[in-house]
Amino acid sequence: MTTHADLSTRLAYAAAFVRGKSGTAPAVGMVLGSGLGPIAERVTRAVAIPFAEIPGVPVSRVPGHAGRLVLGDLATPEGPVPVAIMQGRAHVYEGRPAAEVAFGARVLCGLGVRALLLTNAAGALDPTLAPGDLVRITDHLNLSGQNPLVGENDDRVGPRFPDLTEAYDPALGALLDEAARATGAPLRRGIYACVLGPSYETPAEVRMLRLLGADLVGMSTVPEVIAARHQGVPVAALSVVANLAAGLGGGRLTHDEVQAVAAKVLGRVEALLAAFLPRAARAPREGA
Ligand code: HPA
Prior knowledge:
Blueprint: H1 7-21, E1 28-32, E2 44-50, E3 68-74, E4 81-87, H2 98-101, H3 103-110, E5 115-124, E6 134-142, H4 170-183, E7 188-194, H5 203-211, E8 216-218, H6 222-230, E9 235-244, H7 255-264, H8 266-282
Parallel strand pairs: 1-4, 1-5, 5-9, 6-7, 7-8
Antiparallel strand pairs: 2-3, 3-4, 5-8, 6-9
Helix pairs in contact: 1-3, 3-6, 4-8
Bound molecules: hypoxanthine.
The site of hypoxanthine has 13 residues, from strand 5, strand 8 and strand 9.
């Protein structure tokens, strides 16, 4: 029993609200993590909607997360690609249930995108990674203790027990690799451990995460991945290595440093996206 409207109803309502503001039919949805928000400023024919206005989409109070949905076109070498971009995101550590955190990504999926690209800034556990490296996520460890599908399932949106064997779509991953080769930007691969935060890890936790097989650690992305897979939308995810995880680099970790590194690689991320977007926009949508 729930006192709220079903998920499918809330999603349809939010998507209709967005469609009422913008005629863009986005081919690709994106979520921009810490420091990557300026990419949304490049959108032309842009309609920007504050999250606070979209029914059900939570607002983030974290510095570096603007909190707007931007719809329009991103220029690429193959012409403009219609996109829907979340400039910023909410996090579970802000005190919201994972289902709420993931709702914005669900709205992107509800707008009919063929692919969802999630980005974040992460700490490196793999000692061969360095700040500024770009890593495509191939799998995750959800260690946050939270899951956006907890609670009653709405079967109209997705199954009770969704399969996550290929949570990160291999075909989209291959397109990211191809885009990286086309731009000459090295792209690594890694497994992302999602922790609750907001404190950074202790050095002992960092050693544990490495032993568990993770290459990256962060506090986001996984709720959105799970929700998108629940809806059957293919996902790709990209981490910017912001820092070496605690105890590996020597220094102390700060959010300012995380944002500063992401800002430095903005140009490389933009070039990678410009090569990736037309490829992803052409990719057939699962089940379609
Ligand atoms: N740990 C967790 N989350 C992060 C980190 C980190 O080192 N860097 C950026 N986000």
